[in-house]
Amino acid sequence: MNVADLPQIITAVGGLGTAAFGLLEAAKPVNPWINRIGFGGIRQTVARLTPADSSGTPPVNALPQAGILASLEANWINGTDLGSQKAIAKSLIKLHMSTANAAALGQATNVDGATLAQVAGCMTTGTSLTQPQSDAYARFDLIVTAQLDECYQRADQTYRNWTRALAAVIAVLLALGGGWVLMGTCGFFLHREMAEALLIGLLATPLAPVAKDLSTALATAVNTLQLVKR
Hints:
By secondary structure, the protein is an all-alpha fold. The chain has helices at residues 6-27, 39-49, 65-78, 82-96, 102-109, 113-125, 131-183, 192-207, 211-229. Helix 1 packs across helix 7 (131-183), helix 1 (6-27) packs antiparallel against helix 9 and helix 3 packs antiparallel against helix 4 (82-96).
């Protein structure tokens, strides 16, 4: 392999990775599971922060837990900005708080449930909060924000890791398929060319975001060395 050909090779390998990501995006309407990757952690956290009361009925003037989860899942699938998703989730959680579920909500956030019940009652009647109630509500708000930030960040990382892994699988399959087409069945499988195709497929997705810059840098370096040698 000629060193001068490295920029073109890197660009081609990066193009394979880009194609793999494109095929993964095209597969999302066919397999909706891809869009839901990572949402399980969000579902668990929000379900814990939206408990029902002892009778199992949702608070008045608030979405039930199923409606909250459905709304958040729709935002996740649609790729809404993470900051907006967390803000919507926190608003729905606070709206869901009531005197009946304040004790369970206090356990989930490590805030005094009795004080949270008083806060919920004051918010229902429009009564001003006392200083202890205001302090407890501020702590509740901060803890809910922290829990939502953690679960959304973890979910986003899970989604990105899984999509990269799936794109890598697609890139490997494309590379193996291309090698088989070029070499034929007898001259490809269990030979050096198959290992090369496998390596190309594995490198395709990591190189895709940086292929252009890397190939340009290598081309510049090669041209510079050629000028120095003259």
